[in-house]
Amino acid sequence: MSQSIEVLNLRTQRDFQYVLKMETQMKGLKAKFRQIEDDRKTLMTKHFQELKEKMDELLPLIPVLEQYKTDAKLITQFKEEIRNLSAVLTGIQEEIGAYDYEELHQRVLSLETRLRDCMKKLIDLKKRKEEERQVEP
C-alpha cells in the first residue's frame, strides 16, 4: 500500500510540475491579452491566431488538473485510513492482555479485510487510469 501511495505521490509531484509549467504559459497568455487590448485594431488577426494556438496547447491541462485533484483526494482518504488503522493498532497494543485469542483473531481478520479493500481500491484506480491513458489519443 505504501508503494502505491509512493507511486501516487510521484505522479502527483510530476503533475504539479506540469501545472507550474502551464502557469507560466497562462501568464504569457495574460500578457498577450493585454497587448491585444492596447493595439487590437492593427494586430487583432495575428494575435488571435497566436492565442488560439496557445489555448490549443493548454487544452491537455484540463484532464491533468482533474486527475491531480482526484489523486489529491485519494491521498487524503488514504492518509485518513492510515490514521484510523494506526489508532486501531495502538488500541490493540494497549488492550492486548484484555482479549482472548479468539477476539484478537477476529480483530486481525477485520483489519486484514480493510487492508485488502484499500489495496483493491488502489488496483482499481490504477486500472482505470491505465484504461484512460489507453483511450486518450
Describe the structure.
The protein is mainly alpha-helical and 137 residues long. The chain is 92% helix and 0% strand. It contains 4 helices and no strands. The chain is elongated and about 85 Å long. The two termini are 31 Å apart. The relative contact order is 0.09. The model has no long low-confidence stretch (mean pLDDT 83).
Weakly predicted, low-confidence segments: none
Shape, please?
elongated
What's the pLDDT, averaged over the residues?
83
Our measurement of the CA-to-CA distance between the termini, rounded to an integer number of angstroms, reads: 31 Å
Count of helical segments? 4
Our Rg estimate from Cα atoms comes to 24 Å
Percent helix = over 70%
Coiled coil: 19-46, 75-121
Protein name: Olfactomedin 3
Pfam families: Noelin-1
Keywords: Coiled coil
Please specify the SSE layout and strand pairing.
Elements: H1 2-38, H2 40-58, H3 61-95, H4 101-135
Helix pairs in contact: 1-2, 1-3
Write a concise synopsis of the structure shown.
The chain has 137 residues and is mostly helical.
Core attributes:
about 140 residues; Olfactomedin 3; about 90% helix; mainly alpha
